[in-house]
Design a protein that fits this description.
Blueprint (H helix, E strand, L loop, with lengths): L18 H30 L6 H25 L12 H11 L2 H12 L6 E7 L4 E7 L10 E8 L6 H4 L3 H10 L3 H12 L1
Antiparallel strand pairs: 1-2, 1-3
Length: 197
């Protein structure tokens, strides 16, 4: 069964994000979905042919993680934004947990924004450690590397240049501000509830 690209057109018209930027970003995401399917098909064909021990198979197997995580991270990113966003009181349990972990909701946001403003390309992810029962913000350089085992992503922000340069140039802090204005706290609350169930 092939993966299908999800439709995020409901984000079009969102304040702080031009439709051009969003449509380009949706196209990039659709490429990850298509490539996930292509790599999965190629791996299945190679396995069927008995070519599982070849260098080509090994490289495609590694590539699958890049394409798959590129697909999923974009789905999480678009999925935790909404046109106009919502207020943190839409996520009472998450807000309470963040305040407990970071001293206040503002303390968490300051750390998340600072992580997003770091030099480099990648992702900022608020994770919930399901074993340690803790929340933390983490920088991820590449789609397929650096994700902490056993942790559930609660909030994802793309900080690759394609996520903001069309609208903000090098002003990443302005992009982060627009991201927060459109943050869907209800989506993050649902993810937190699922991770802590």
């Amino acid at each position: 069964m092939e993966y299908q690209a999800k439709n995020f057109d409901g984000l079009l018209g969102m304040e702080g994000f031009s439709d051009t930027l969003l449509k380009n970003h949706f196209t990039l995401y659709a490429g990850y979905v298509a490539n996930t399917n292509k790599v999965a098909d190629a791996l299945a064909a190679m396995a069927k042919e008995g070519r599982g021990g070849t260098p080509e198979y090994a490289e495609l197997k590694r590539r699958f993680g890049w394409e798959f995580n590129g697909m999923r991270l974009h789905e999480l990113y678009f999925g935790n934004m909404a046109n106009g966003g919502s207020k943190p009181d839409a996520a009472p349990e998450l807000a309470k947990a963040l305040a407990g972990e970071f001293g206040s909701l503002e303390g968490w946001e300051k750390d998340f924004r600072a992580t997003g403003a770091m030099r480099g390309i990648g992702w900022v992810v608020l994770y919930y450690d399901q074993t340690g029962k803790r929340l933390f913000n983490m920088w991820i350089n590449e789609h397929d590397a650096g994700h902490p085992s056993g942790c559930a992503p609660i909030l994802v922000m793309d900080v690759f240049e394609h996520a903001y340069m069309t609208d903000y140039g090098l002003k990443r802090a302005d992009y982060i501000g627009a991201f927060f204005r459109n943050l869907d706290w209800e989506a993050t609350e649902a993810r937190f509830a699922k991770a802590t169930a």
